[in-house]
Design brief:
single chain, about 250 residues, seven-stranded mixed beta sheet, four-stranded mixed beta sheet, 6 helices, about 20% helix, elongated
Length: about 250
């Protein structure tokens, strides 16, 4: 992993969420308005194409830091705490939070929490979490929402590759099969990068249509890489799709 130098506020609360494979997603909140765990899980779901947000990673794979002003001494103090499973990542935590060679405290162990056997039981359903994608993502708290929507702003390392696409349809028909076939042929021919294309039926999953702000079908949504883009209806327009994907120059 490589890290860019960040300009950090003087006072802030930070939340970091790791995967078992060593990927990292984090948030720096100067207003200390929330814990952001749900936002981090929802963003991981989209980036790694998980079947659902990996809430089971919390709190076992988390670390928190608080830069606060002591009202008695008027000095800035730091409280940094990490769970045992991520203590080995202290160097990375110090890099993203600008804390030099700070020694992090180990979060208090709770009976029945972070049981390795229980966590490992999720591996078959979430295999991506046990892979190392060399991923470091910063989620902007001012843009974060409970679900991954168009306003979410992500800052990702340049070597992160791949596309995450969603195709929203209403039921199944020969027309949908033709769209899928054409999309796969187009993506294989022009992208030149890995991609995942998930088909979501809004008839059986109407909540997904609401979360992703889909009002008509078919709709193709590029959720990664950002910025999020969408095409409604006209999925036979190859030039338009390539422009949305940023691959028009290859056409």
């Amino acid at each position: 992993m490589t890290l860019d130098k960040l300009t950090l506020p003087q006072l802030f609360k930070g939340i970091a969420l790791f995967t078992p494979g060593g990927d990292l997603i984090y948030c720096i909140d100067p207003h200390k308005q929330g814990r952001w765990h749900l936002h981090l899980c929802a963003t991981l779901q989209e980036i790694l194409d998980l079947p659902e947000p990996p809430h089971f990673l919390v709190p076992c794979y988390t670390a928190t830091i608080d830069h606060w002003l002591d009202p008695r001494t008027q000095q800035i103090r730091t409280f940094a705490e990490a769970y045992p499973a991520v203590m080995r990542h202290q160097a990375v935590l110090n890099a993203i939070f600008g804390t030099g060679e700070l020694v992090w405290q180990s979060a208090p162990w709770q009976e029945g929490l972070c049981d390795r056997m229980v966590l490992t039981s999720y591996r078959s359903l979430f295999p991506q979490l046990w892979e190392d994608h060399d991923l470091i993502v910063r989620l902007d708290p001012f843009e974060a929402v409970p679900y991954y929507q168009e306003s979410a702003t992500l800052q990702v390392q340049p070597n992160t590759q791949g596309y995450v696409l969603r195709l929203f349809v209403a039921g199944h028909s020969p027309g949908i099969e033709r769209i899928l076939q054409n999309l796969h042929e187009l993506l294989e021919r022009f992208l030149g990068q890995p991609y995942t294309l998930k088909v979501i039926d809004v008839v059986t999953h109407p909540e997904q249509a609401e979360v992703n702000q889909v009002t008509a079908t078919p709709t193709l949504v590029k959720v990664w890489p950002v910025p999020i883009r969408r095409i409604v209806g006209d999925l036979d327009n190859v030039d338009k799709i390539l422009q949305m994907l940023g691959a028009k120059e290859k056409y």
